[in-house]
Amino acid sequence: MSTRLSVNINKVALIRNAREGNLPNLQEVARDCERFGAEGVTVHPRPDQRHIRYSDIPLLKAVNTTEFNIEGNPTPEFMKLIEDNRPHQATLVPDSPDVLTSDQGWDTVKHKSFLQDITAQLNEWGVRVSIFVDPVPAFVEGAKAVGAQRVELYTGDYAKIFGSGQPARAVAPHAEAARVAAEVGLGLNAGHDLNLSNLRFYAEQVEGLLEVSIGHALIADALYYGLSNTIQMYKRELA
Ligand SMILES: CC(=O)[C@@H](O)[C@H](O)COP(=O)(O)O
Ligand SMILES: NCC(=O)COP(=O)(O)O
């Protein structure tokens, strides 16, 4: 089973927002990411709409031919966005509005009742639910308990520890969390700060990885290698 690459286009939207107008055209970039081999498009509309705007979502949905994954904290505004646009997957992330970037996953034990209600509503709308968690077995089990179909393991700490030259220590908790996910029957996604240096090792060591969503490093790499070439480079790391 190969791991799907979902390209997160937040940073393309950040460049677009730096000026009036529509350059780069987000719809075109999303369509081209798929044409270049992406097996999904991911966006994370934040409340301040610093990059992805709520108005982008229906336009991106209209051109999506692979999988559309919308990430975010399940606020009423987020839930309305999901109800109106019905992406394939909603990834629930516990970010506060002012956070620079996502930096932790859910405590699915402490927030069981809330996540249970949100998950049930999303499933009722036909949307697969993935819950963003740190690689902690209890939080993986908690995601199953709230009725989610998948977990997305937060790989920020993995990237930091890998980058400090300790790959085995970096990946160990993720390999264990993946085993727990398989045991309880949860699908497994992963993301945050994955890049061309740390991706292959992660995918080789973490069993049953269905999807990685990658944005920041991939878009930065595309400045040097071009978007088409870069997407192919990332897919080769997953082959
Ligand atoms: C949830 C996660 O780790 C990322 O998907 C997040 O979308 C990154 O958000 P920024 O692009 O705003 O840093
Ligand atoms: N869920 C992770 C994601 O979509 C992209 O994270 P990053 O590669 O921008 O750090």
Automatic annotation (TrEMBL):
<dbReference type="Pfam" id="PF03740">
    <property type="entry name" value="PdxJ"/>
</dbReference>
<comment type="function">
    <text>Catalyzes the complicated ring closure reaction between the two acyclic compounds 1-deoxy-D-xylulose-5-phosphate (DXP) and 3-amino-2-oxopropyl phosphate (1-amino-acetone-3-phosphate or AAP) to form pyridoxine 5'-phosphate (PNP) and inorganic phosphate.</text>
</comment>
<comment type="subunit">
    <text>Homooctamer; tetramer of dimers.</text>
</comment>
<dbReference type="GO" id="GO:0033856">
    <property type="term" value="F:pyridoxine 5'-phosphate synthase activity"/>
</dbReference>
<feature type="active site" description="Proton acceptor">
    <location>
        <position position="44"/>
    </location>
</feature>
<feature type="binding site">
    <location>
        <position position="46"/>
    </location>
    <ligand>
        <name>1-deoxy-D-xylulose 5-phosphate</name>
    </ligand>
</feature>
<keyword id="KW-0963">Cytoplasm</keyword>
<feature type="active site" description="Proton donor">
    <location>
        <position position="192"/>
    </location>
</feature>
<dbReference type="InterPro" id="IPR004569">
    <property type="entry name" value="PyrdxlP_synth_PdxJ"/>
</dbReference>
<comment type="pathway">
    <text>Cofactor biosynthesis; pyridoxine 5'-phosphate biosynthesis; pyridoxine 5'-phosphate from D-erythrose 4-phosphate: step 5/5.</text>
</comment>
<feature type="binding site">
    <location>
        <begin position="215"/>
        <end position="216"/>
    </location>
    <ligand>
        <name>3-amino-2-oxopropyl phosphate</name>
    </ligand>
</feature>
<feature type="binding site">
    <location>
        <position position="19"/>
    </location>
    <ligand>
        <name>3-amino-2-oxopropyl phosphate</name>
    </ligand>
</feature>
<feature type="site" description="Transition state stabilizer">
    <location>
        <position position="152"/>
    </location>
</feature>
<feature type="binding site">
    <location>
        <position position="101"/>
    </location>
    <ligand>
        <name>1-deoxy-D-xylulose 5-phosphate</name>
    </ligand>
</feature>
<comment type="similarity">
    <text>Belongs to the PNP synthase family.</text>
</comment>
<protein>
    <recommendedName>
        <fullName>Pyridoxine 5'-phosphate synthase</fullName>
        <ecNumber>2.6.99.2</ecNumber>
    </recommendedName>
</protein>
<dbReference type="GO" id="GO:0008615">
    <property type="term" value="P:pyridoxine biosynthetic process"/>
</dbReference>
<feature type="binding site">
    <location>
        <position position="8"/>
    </location>
    <ligand>
        <name>3-amino-2-oxopropyl phosphate</name>
    </ligand>
</feature>
<feature type="binding site">
    <location>
        <position position="193"/>
    </location>
    <ligand>
        <name>3-amino-2-oxopropyl phosphate</name>
    </ligand>
</feature>
<feature type="binding site">
    <location>
        <position position="51"/>
    </location>
    <ligand>
        <name>1-deoxy-D-xylulose 5-phosphate</name>
    </ligand>
</feature>
<feature type="active site" description="Proton acceptor">
    <location>
        <position position="71"/>
    </location>
</feature>
<keyword id="KW-0808">Transferase</keyword>
<dbReference type="InterPro" id="IPR013785">
    <property type="entry name" value="Aldolase_TIM"/>
</dbReference>
<dbReference type="GO" id="GO:0005829">
    <property type="term" value="C:cytosol"/>
</dbReference>
<keyword id="KW-0664">Pyridoxine biosynthesis</keyword>
<dbReference type="InterPro" id="IPR036130">
    <property type="entry name" value="Pyridoxine-5'_phos_synth"/>
</dbReference>
